[in-house]
């Protein structure tokens, strides 16, 4: 497929674009800075500028596309990961403005230009736990896509708004628009760097609902969504199979989630960030485990 990928120079985007490249897709990156991933070309674009977005969505992906003499090919899909990645990187109002306006521009261009699929990055933060002022527990466990999304911070607010915007564009156009509520992205080198501390102090993972997503498995999830048509508007939790700490579910519940309702029985080390919908609808099957990575 011919894929337009925004934010491909970022932490998650670098691994996702590499994965898509390895699956045979042609990927053009829209970002403020060039990607250092081999085989990924970058068109430097300000996504808050609607004119630049519309132009980029109709641009050649490389000089080779001039050769047939048949005009600019249409992109098969847009994967929209670009965003201010969290609070405290920019003033709150600027985080909100950039994240919501860039997403609006991408969805507007895609639907008006006839691009049949958009996959966009939403966030675990929409559930209101990650950047809460003080401790905020989930309403129930495991946290699935039906859990309320009422966050307090500008970043998570922007992601909730983006989901509403995406749903409206899908209703208008009928194309497939899938939102990925991505948990804490872990790069391969971060297992040895960070996870020993999580074993020693599991409370470090409380704000991430004790979950994580391997950056390579995130790439797989994007590819699963590219290969799955006809779902209309959907949101999916994206995480790995297991908790990110060395405790069992029962031990985590006893220490951190006393009194929180449990919706169903879970496996001994199963993630509290439910990924059953992604498994069922698009065939997501995470392959990487922090346990295996630390044993290597």
How would you briefly describe this protein structure?
The strands form two sheets. A seven-stranded parallel sheet has the order 3-2-1-4-5-6-9, with helices on both faces. The chain contains nine helices and nine strands.
Describe this structure in words.
With 296 residues, the protein is α/β, with parallel strands linked by helices. It has one domain: Rossmann fold. It contains 9 helices and 9 strands. It has helices at residues 11-22, 50-56, 92-113, 154-173, 190-200, 215-227, 249-256, 276-282, 290-295, and strands at 2-6, 26-31, 41-44, 77-80, 117-123, 176-182, 185-186, 213-214, 233-238. A 7-stranded parallel β-sheet has the order 3-2-1-4-5-6-9, sandwiched between helices. Strands 7-8 form a two-stranded parallel ribbon. α4 links the parallel β5 (117-123) and β6. It is globular. Pfam families: Epimerase (PF01370). Residues 2-42 form the Rhodanese domain. It is an enzyme of class 1 (oxidoreductase). This is Uronate dehydrogenase. Keywords: Oxidoreductase.
